[in-house]
Amino acid sequence: MKNFFKPYRIKSLVGTLLALSTAQVLAADWSDTAISWRHGSQFAEPFNPADISKDIVALTHVSGYKYGTNFFNVDFLQSDSKDPASATQKSGAQEAYVVYRNTIDFGKLQGRDIKFGPVRGVGATIGFDWNTKNDAGYNSRKRMLVAGPTLMWDVPGFLNTSLLLLSESNAPSIVSSRYTYKTHAMLTASWGIPLADSLAFEGYANLIASKGKDEVGAETGTETNVDAQIMYDLGSQISLSKNTLRVGLEYQYWNNKFGNTSATTFGKGYKASTPMVRVEYHF
C-alpha cells in the first residue's frame, strides 16, 4: 500500500482520471460559469514586510455530469508596486493561478446513493494546481497533482470535505532546476450554504501538512488557508435572472503561506489577514 502513494503512481492515477473527466465535461447535465473581480489591500507575500494591494479577476466554471462534478477556476492577480515585477520596475507583479478538481460520486457509479448519518454521499476527488508569477525574486512555477477521498454532507446547498494527497513541485528563479517537495496531505473543505433567499455563505478551507524541506533546505510548516465570503444576489433586485449579478464581502486568512514560517521568512509575509470586496457575473 505504501508504494501506491509514490509520486509517479499519483501522477499516473490523476492523469487517467483527468482524461476520463474531461470527456464527461462534454456531457454536462448542468453548468455555471462566472467572471468575478475582487480587491483587497492587506495581502502578504513571504519575505515581503509590506501590505500589498491586489486586484484579482477570475473565471470560474462548475458543472455536473452523470457520475460527479467538475470545478475549474483561474485567477489573474495584479499586485501594486509593493510586490514589484522586478527589482528595477515599479509596476506590480502579475500572476495566474489555475485550479481544477473533479469529484466522482461512488453512489452514482453504482446506481444507488451511499448515505449514513449526516453524510449524503461518498466519492473521490482528483485534480491539479498550476501557477506562474513574475515578481522581483521568487518567480513561482508551481505544479501540483491531488487525489483522495471525499465526503459530501447532507446540508442545505453543499458541503464537501476531502483528504487529499499532494504531489507538488516548483521551478522558481532561485534554483537551477525543478524541485519536488515531499508528498504531503491536505484536509480541505468547500461549501455553499444559502442563508436566505438572496444571501449565501460560500468558501473553502485548507489545512496543509508540512511538505518537508524547501528549495533552499529550510523546513516548511503546516499551512492554513481559509477563504470565505457572504454573497448577495443583487441581480434579482434589478430585474436580472436569479443569481446573475452577485456582490459581497470576502475574507482570507492565510498562515504559513506556501509552507513558509516565521522561522524561514524572518517574520515577513508568511501570514495574511485580508478583507476583500467581490463582484461576480454569471452567464
Question: Spans with pLDDT under 50 lasting ≥5 residues?
Answer: 1-8
Order of helices and strands: HEEEEHEEEEEEEEHE
Q: What average pLDDT do the residues reach?
A: 91
Helix-residue proportion: under 10%
Describe what you observe in this structure:
The protein has 283 residues and is mainly beta. It has one domain (2-282): Nucleoside-specific channel-forming protein, Tsx-like (Outer membrane phospholipase (ompla), Chain C, Beta Barrel). 10% of the residues lie in helices and 55% in strands. The chain is built from three helices and 13 strands; from the N terminus they run αββββαββββββββαβ. Strands 1-2-3-4-5-6-7-9-10-11-12-13 form a twelve-stranded antiparallel beta barrel. Strand 9 (184-196) and strand 10 form a beta hairpin. The protein starts with 6 loop residues before the first helix and ends with a strand.
Keywords:
283 residues; Outer membrane phospholipase (ompla), Chain C; twelve-stranded antiparallel barrel; disordered N terminus
Summed up:
This protein has 283 residues and is mainly β. Helix content is 10%, strand content 55%.
